[in-house]
Amino acid sequence: MTGKFYIETYGCQMNSYDSQAIEGILEGLGMTPVLKPEAADLIIFNTCSVRDAAEQRVIGRINQLDGLRRGRKGRLLMGVAGCMSQRMGEELIAVTKRRLDFVVGPDQYNNLPEILARIEAEERDLCYRDFDQEVAYFAKPKDTPPGGTHFVAVMRGCDKFCTYCIVPFTRGRERSRDRRSIVEEVERLAARGAFEVMLLGQAVSSYCDDDLDFAGLLGEVSAVEGIESVRFMTSYPTDMDIGFFRAVASLPKVGTGIHLPFQSGSDKILKAMNRRYTIGEYERILENGRREVPGLLFSTDIIVGFPGETEEDFQATLAVVERQAFISAYMFKYSPREGTLSARWEDDIPTAVKEERLGRLIALQERMSRRQLDRCLGQEMEILLDEPSKKLETQLRGRTRSNVRVIIDKDPDLKIGSKVMVRVTEIKGTSLLAVRVQGD
Known about the structure:
There is one protein chain. By secondary structure, the protein is an alpha/beta fold. Among the domains are: about 5-130, 3-Layer(aba) Sandwich (Rossmann fold); about 380-435, CATH 2.40.50.140. Helix content is about 35%, strand content about 25%. Strands 2-1-3-4-5-6 form a six-stranded parallel beta sheet, sandwiched between helices. Strand 18 (about 395-400) and strand 19 form a beta hairpin.
């Protein structure tokens, strides 16, 4: 099939990676990517199902772009990929009033050539959403321009079954990718000029390939020549033992900014969420990490207003945030997702209460983030320059090993992908401003 295609991506880094994989498959068919849907013969929406609002945006967008078919000489195909396809299946075709030609789940992208061939033969309403339970599905990513941060998926699915989370039902059970294929992908990226990779998985720290655990995988990826930085997300607390932190400390290329969701400070709520730790155990994990890894900074996820959450439970969450001073946090008010266990329960916290609690939590976290950044003022630190400034052509952006954003002025001998010593002079929003250390 020839023609032009446009992919619109919603959701997490894994979806961005999958869109890159889809792009590579379509280009292998002789199709050409375009930047605007108006120029496309095929539009694919790569979707997220974590929250209802994300799904509603996609449905609205499908209805909007269906208008491109009016007055068009050639045929315009539209399909939905990703978690929304997996969750809704044929229902999605009905909800969009048959504006879609196909839906395809995350394990079925290799079947896109077959799907498009069937559509060429005048078939419609195609639905592909079986899970590949034997071998983790990984399409070959499209080659990307040199430099920058590149996503590499190392596993799919999740076995944790948190009561609020749809991921095990849209991404399937945990399946780890063969170590050799991961290293080969990183080597290919490095050969094209990539200097940083982000290893992805719904519970990336649960990675296991025979006798190789995630710490071992970090070591193998770090050994790839040309790679200067290795980051990862998202981790699950009970995977983070002393051995893991010691491995991170011994691998200078591995980032020391770790995203580790705790979700609630109340043991009662954690049990209802089916999180497999107490808050005491979680905080001991943070303590162990900070003791073993110099400069370690944690970020986190927090849900407020989960069914049954009292003001006392919420106060326990605020207390954890104040004690631990996370560098940043993704904070959400609870909303039930159809298909999860908690969706069967009464959503008994009024919206106004959820919003008020979320406001208090955000205000506290902003103070904690500022406290962490204040500690950087006047400090000298090494950063990896990763991109030009998005606001000023005279500046470059970089990150510390602990994943704090730093902005410095351009210098003729500074290049993207290089490391430089800087001294922090100012805080601007969630970033640091710095000057190059003389003599570096």
